[in-house]
Amino acid sequence: MTAKTATKAKTKVLFASPEVMPFCGTGGLGEVAGSLPREVNKLKNSEVECRVIMPLYGSVKEEFRREMKFLGHVEIPVAWRSQYMGIFELEKDGVIYYFVDNEYYFKRDSLYGFGDDCERFSYFSRAVIESSAVTGFEPDIVHANDWQTALSVVFAKAIYPEKKLRTVFTVHNVEYQGRFGTDVLGDCIGLKEEDNGILMKDGDVNLMKGAIECSSKFTTVSPTYAKELTYPVSAFGLDGVIRDNEYKMFGILNGIDTVAYDPGNDAYIAAAYSPENLQGKKKCKRDLQKSLGLPESDAPVITFISRLVAPKGVDIIADMMDGLLETEDVQFVMLGTGDEKYENYFRQLQDRYPDKVRSLIEFNTATAHRIYAGGDIFIMPSRSEACGLAQMIACRYGNVPIVRLTGGLADSIHEWNGTKGNGFTFYDFNGSELAFALGRALDLYSHKIKWRALVRHILDEDFSWAKAAEIYHRMYTEL
Questions:
Q1: Is 152 within 8 Å of 170 (Cβ atoms)?
Q2: What is the pTM of this model?
Q3: In the predicted model, what is the mean pLDDT of residues 387-394?
């Protein structure tokens, strides 16, 4: 007789995020939530089954809604009231996605920024824990992301201890902590009075603080950012809480979706190219120049794709850009929206240098791909950057990054020395340092053979999710 080999049950992870690409997103968190669970599931001999749960926003497109299956509904508590929770399911690329349906909370023009956001995401956090009543998927681990899902970690410990859930909480951006007045404790959250202290910080309710303290493990999106968060200058008041919980903190560098960002197979760009054949890269540059009405020259095209806010370094760009444009034969193309004063600055910059500058005050996915592919140099002079994805995407398209050494930028981009490195870097947050780094890049650009060697080198860089997925897989299975 042959003894039957027992099959080890997979660790079940419910990945909770307020946004998930391609369904909807506003930035890096949506990209992470759309990539990491898929990569964990498809690891060879994976011992984890990761499913994703998110709100069913009104902005989720009909093409996805047609593929969804309605699983059922129940009433769930939100502090003193009960609310409808419907659950839809969709399977895509090896991942099962659950969508929490409640039109009162989620059928709105945008994802965030409403006066009742605490109530909306307290409801969603309850739904994360209560969803198994409809889905039948009983997770071993809930992995929550940013303040909007922070209460799911707190609820798991304070309200649902019988479920014996392990929890992971990831800080993507510590600036947004979910801070509210104490009135939300009774109106929106509904913990026992003796548990309310979990959420209190400096006289306010702080949802991120509660999740950090209650989580089994907490992570940030790069090793350097993890270190920075232990210092007051970077942690926006949470440094003490983070230091107290440093024993369970991990800094894990994000990856990018190398299928969505692939110069060898990208429907948005004018021509395909690879490290072995850079002819398509030149065609992409000419296409970008022509479409924007810039001279079709060999002048280096400097690019910038970003939200236009102070932490992204717009002020230090403004400090040095006129000097650069007046003295160097360069072109500058930017894409993004944000604070009105920065939008106006870039509009006026184009007015002053109409033959050198194009300021695209918008965000458009196709245009972003064309700028990545058509640009020569990509600047990312952020004051703070938890991880950053744009610098990795720029490498993927052979658009040489110049970054300030902070957070994930310091972990992913290193000064080129002729054989090693993948860009140009600086540390001090000022326009002179950015200009000096740009000067080194422009000097190398003038040596075409050396420049092409750098471009080929960064096109070969591996910024896929494979390494991060392995680390998360190990964390899940250890938990």
A1: no
A2: 0.90
A3: 95
